[in-house]
Fold this sequence. Notes:
This protein is of the alpha+beta class and 814 residues long. It is built from 26 helices and 21 strands.
Amino acid sequence: MPTVWRDIRYACRMLARSPGFTAVVVLSLALGIGANTAIFSIVNAYLLRPMPVDKPDRLVAVYLTSPHWSGVGSFSYPELLDYRKQETGLSDLMGSAGIPLSITGGEKPELIWGEIVTGNYFLGLGVHPIAGRVFLPEETREPGKNPVCVLNYNFWRRKFQSDPRVVGQTIKINGHEFTVVGVAPRGFIGTTLFNFIPDVWVPVTMQQTIAPVQGNYLEERDNRWISLRARLKPGVTRAQAQAAMNVVARQLAREYPQTDADLQVHLIPGGARTQPWLMATGIMAATTALMVGVVFLVLLIATANVANLMLARAAGRAKEMAIRIAVGASRARLIRQLLTESVVLSLLGGALGIVLALAFGDLLKGFYPSLDFQTTDLDYETAVDFRIFPFTFLISLVAAMLFGLAPALRASKADQATALKSGRVGRGNLLVMAQVALSCLLLIGGGLFLRSMLFAQGVDPGFERTGITMFSVDLDLQGYDAARGQRFERSLPERLRALPGVTAASIAFPLPLDAYQYSSDIGPEGYVPRSNSEDNTAGLSRVGPGYFETMGTRLMAGRAIDERDTEPKPRVAVINETLARRYWRTPEQALGRKFTTGPKGPSIEVIGVARNGKYITFGEGAMPYYFTPLAQNYQGRMTVLVRSRESAGALMAGIRQQVKDLDAALPIFGVRTMPQFLNRTLSTYQGGAVLLGTFAFVALLLAVVGIYGVLHFTVARRTREIGIRMALGALPSQVARLVLQRSLFYVGVGVCLGAGMALVAARFTGTLLAGVSGADPITFCAVLLLFGFVALLASAVPARRAIRVDPIQALRWE
């Protein structure tokens, strides 16, 4: 141990003598290690971090598959009860399902995210409340009885100022009084991934009370809506429990052949917040692999860069190594000392990398998409926990070995001074080529996403991007029937149009480019499909009078949906240009034509044709779409659109008052401007451009340093050769050309390799882009020109040094 400390002290003294070298190496490593740490923190939050529950390693997530389905499925409530009755090696089979809830009380009503859970949900997970209690089994045996709830810690802190006296009080949920029986512990935010974090949990037996639907969710066997977790019994493995569950599945298939035939049960580790369909379909694995692959490339570039710098530094320490060998130091002793210096550098880089990782996590939060209503605890997902420290330490050691071992072996050779004088091409040149290739690959990816972002920001979405404020309401949560809901939908836009500064107002759901999407099969009258496999689906929005005027969508033919289009009247629709030309050649010829939706759908007459727009993503091609009147297709959830010369902030006080006058208990949610609404789709391209662009810029800087380091090393190593050339009459321009040719050779080979890898990856990246292909020639040419400039920039100082070599001093070098 004393020897190790001596090595560390000596390493620190040596590094302190070269502050410039130390700073460049530490920063290079910090960028590579920090990128990996940042991505690890995200993967850790979603896949590795266990929930704050008892023995999370014994939890499993349970899901169904069938040869008749695509993807994976949940369970119906009767199926959950059937599996509970059998011996399967699982205890505490628990169910949960997300649901939006309207909370009445306080200054204004509020829409929150909640979860319907089985009575054993908290007890089975091992969640211990910080106030009150959790649900009791007897509270979930009789439907409609025992209206009780448990609050999320953050919701309790925000809504009730952490008052423990809230336990025992009642709150109104969807117009029904619920008694608060407990508060969940801090950090527990439910069990499912990529859903909104629930603020309130209510028993499953209250489902029909707070969200009445046609049929009965608690009795319908083919209505699979509830996600399951379970706990493995002591001594039972996951494979054994899965086999036992499938035995029960086969029994239920014989008993209920109409609903349970061919079902298969699967179990995956459930100690973290996972989503079975992501795990089963490989989406999470593919996304994780992409992120890890990108940051690992950055780490490779960083270590290759540092290895080059270490090789160059060895040239200056040749005399030191020779003296130490002469006084009796073994080669193993020198290697250990040099590796100690590498480890010290890498740990310093790792420490700075953690700081950069925290900053990168904050950067990612800036691209969180704008949704209808946000969760109360987003920071929990990306919060850093203790696992990043051993991870960073481990990756720092790996990096130290990657960049430190080869230079240490080379520098510790007894004849390394001779080796340094030789003119052979070293490994450093190959490392520079690899750096350039990987940097080129990342730069092309960043350039493609940047071009996609610029395209998405400038493309015409089919409506105006500014001047519109929107918000949402959900009448179903307040128990509105269709007649009452339609009166509300007529009255609210009329009231809003009377507000000062408002020029138009309407309602719709879903909007084009919304997170929610409707579609249907359509059958134009008289149209004969070209084949049985022909796709005749079209997207759909339900809109109110004034929608096209409010959104700024131009009609190419016919008229817009207005007050005439109500339920007693014949069904009508406005279609887009793509749908019109596909079936009737021109917009004018489409007017008056009819189509049906589905085999038993009503006949719908085309009254207008709107210009094309973007409906799902900015990168999509032209797709068929149509709009129908909300008055003929009632639904309680709607987005209210207000066009005004006033800002959203100035409008909202008047808007809230108009909604309150119609229904004081109705919550407003999803208040956004049109740019904020579009951010949900734009954030995909913006996030990709920033993520890959940042890493590509880092890689480019590392490539510049790498090219400079190798050329600097090459000039130092070939000083004698350069002196001889100049003594024999070589001009400075010829010497500079020699250095520049070497630089361009490294860059040329690296760029060709990187461009080749990018072309191979184009098949996979093309689907993520908008308005540009994965093999976009403009991006490739721009990267080529950029690297040409980089090569000249990195070569300038070494070339200047080469032409200033004194031939007399060079010939005396030996």
